[in-house]
Design a protein that fits this description.
The strands form two sheets. The protein has a six-stranded mixed sheet with strand order 5-4-3-6-8-7, with helices on both faces. Helix content is 67%, strand content 6%. The chain folds into three domains: 342 residues, no CATH class; 86 residues; 118 residues. By secondary structure, the protein is of the alpha/beta class.
């Protein structure tokens, strides 16, 4: 009983902080382009089609992601209705679950509540963790299932009497991960565990009756939905899901500018902010830790990081969120590095240097805002949030530096958690200014107020999903001389001037929500045949009305 009470205070603190960092204010910003609206629209169309098994988009089955995220969204519809807060609720709850899981894994691995608590705080207050907990993607849910599978394994491995439930839960959570994002949900935890047991020379641990039952449970959880989809849709599903969304992403870059060797190392550095330098230091010292006497947990964390990193490093399609499953391990290493450095004379100096460099970065942020103000001021209606940001970062950088010189390094470390708290407050204060640049809601609201809004809405490719979600109208995508969607979309795609003209001729009146460059292209190709009118500019979305020039002329003569 005493053991449980000892964990109560840190768990309650993490829950309160988790609510602030990951939940509070989740409904302020409208659903963003292009991914949040993709998932919510798919779940919405599933409800309209009265199915729990097949995701839909633009009125047709879509096979880009497995089913579990859509089930979670359907559940949120039942509880909250279709609302910004409601659809973001469960990713945030999974985020809090991940924070608590890191705390308990840190306690099992380090046998130190302070290290475990700091590790959980580091994970929760990293910018990428906050961002993915507050958005409707598959990545938070998927990564927490990966985390839970590895927590279960290590719990079973480190406690002899917990081996059977640990292995069974490992397969349960791996099966749920496979239902969330595909085969990687098994590959990542399996490679981590296999590498760890191989290094520990203990492969026999996994060869037991519990593993056989685990494989059976995994199969019951993960296989039926895939079997159903293959039986119903055959080659259409297998080609799109297994080849286009998995194998092809290894061979081709969906986002070519991300296809560099340094993309993921830079992702680790930037996305663990404000803990970036501490994380880098922890990775540098990891090889030393694995050669120490009590090395098992550090080997486990190292295998976890290396397995996830190598799976994605050599694939050509790269996104920040792909390596998100390794961030819990980074947080644990960072928490361990800080407390390890406090008890070591030589590493204490390194920690002092790293914290000093971190405080200097915080002090450099106000200078960057001041020098770049003219470039970005057009996006804000008031200078007050910028002044507040400059003052807050200057104060934080200064107070952290003060504690460093007072040799209170632990307090300096904990103060870094205030950085994302400041960023969250600033983000809320400027959300109304940023929304037109992140979401199509404002543009679509204007368009929906037009009484004669008939026909198909022409959109830039990036806005197509958002326009469908917010208007419910049929849409066509335009990207002259551009590339089609990486995953097929069952909507007209106009990639040439000839196709655009043909589309405009087929409709007596066309409304568009497009980027500025596309608006210019339409104006140029309209010539004397069409009249293009800019009705409104919402952020970077241009709302156009296009009608035949002859129709426009006749209306002008009759005074319409």
């Amino acid at each position: 009983m005493e053991h449980k009470i000892n964990h109560l205070k840190p768990v309650l603190i993490l829950l309160v902080l988790g609510f602030f960092f990951l939940v509070l204010g989740n409904g302020i910003l409208s659903l963003t382009n292009p991914d949040e609206v993709f998932y919510v629209q798919s779940a919405k169309e599933m409800a309209q089609q009265h199915t729990w098994m097949t995701p839909y988009l633009f009125g047709q089955p879509q096979f880009e992601k497995p089913i579990l995220t859509y089930w979670v969204l359907r559940l949120s519809f039942l509880i909250f209705g279709i609302s910004n807060f409601g659809v973001r609720f469960f990713p945030a709850i999974f985020g809090i679950l991940g924070v608590l899981s890191v705390y308990f894994l840190g306690w099992y691995g380090f046998k130190d509540e302070k290290k475990a608590f700091l590790s959980a705080l580091i994970l929760m207050s990293g910018v990428v963790y906050i961002g993915l907990a507050r958005t409707v993607y598959t990545d938070m849910i998927f990564s927490i299932f990966i985390l839970l599978s590895l927590v279960s394994f290590y719990w079973g491995y480190s406690s002899e009497n917990k081996k059977t439930p640990g292995i069974l839960l490992f397969f349960v959570f791996s099966g749920l991960a496979v239902l969330t994002k595909g085969p990687l949900g098994l590959l990542m935890p399996f490679l981590t565990v296999a590498a760890f047991l191989l290094i520990e020379k203990n492969l026999k641990f996994i060869f037991c009756r519990a593993s056989l039952w685990g494989i059976f449970i995994f199969s019951v959880i993960a296989i039926p939905w895939y079997a159903f989809m293959i039986a119903k849709y055959g080659h259409s599903f297998t080609y799109e899901f297994f080849y286009n969304d998995h194998i092809r992403r290894i061979l081709e870059a969906e986002h070519s500018r991300n296809d560099t060797w340094y993309f993921y190392p830079m992702t680790i550095v930037l996305c663990t902010f404000p803990w970036s330098l501490l994380t880098v230091a922890s990775l540098i010292f990891l090889p030393l830790r694995v050669f120490e006497k009590n090395r098992s947990f550090h080997i486990f964390l190292g295998c976890w990081i290396v397995a996830v990193f190598l799976i994605f490093q050599f694939a050509h399609s790269k996104l920040v969120s792909y390596i998100f499953p390794l961030f819990p391990a980074l947080a644990l290493l960072t928490g361990d590095f800080v407390y390890g450095a406090l008890s070591s004379v030589s590493r204490n100096r390194i920690l002092l240097f790293v914290l000093l460099a971190s405080s200097l970065i915080l002090l450099a942020i106000p200078l960057g805002l001041i020098t770049s103000w003219d470039k970005y001021s057009i996006y804000l209606s008031s200078k007050i949030p910028v002044y507040a940001t400059i003052a807050a970062f200057a104060f934080l950088g200064g107070i952290i530096m003060y504690f460093i010189f007072k040799n209170k390094l632990l307090k300096s470390t904990y103060l870094l958690a205030l950085v994302p708290a400041v960023l969250l407050v600033i983000a809320v204060s400027i959300s109304s200014d940023l929304e037109p640049y992140l979401s199509s809601k404002n543009a679509c609201r204007y368009l929906s107020d037009i009484q004669n809004l008939n026909g198909t809405v022409l959109c830039s490719k990036f806005f197509a999903r958002g326009v469908k979600y917010y208007t419910g109208k049929e849409v066509a995508a335009v990207d002259i001389n551009g590339t089609p969607f990486f995953s097929p979309h069952p909507i007209p795609f106009l990639d040439s001037e000839q196709k655009v003209r043909g589309f405009l001729r087929a409709q007596p009146l066309t409304y568009c929500i497009v980027r500025k460059s596309t608006a210019n292209d339409i104006e140029r190709l309209s010539g004397n045949e069409f009249k293009s009118t800019i009705l409104k500019i919402a952020g970077d979305e241009y709302i156009l009305k296009i009608e035949p020039a002859s129709f426009y002329s006749s209306n002008s003569k009759t005074g319409r």
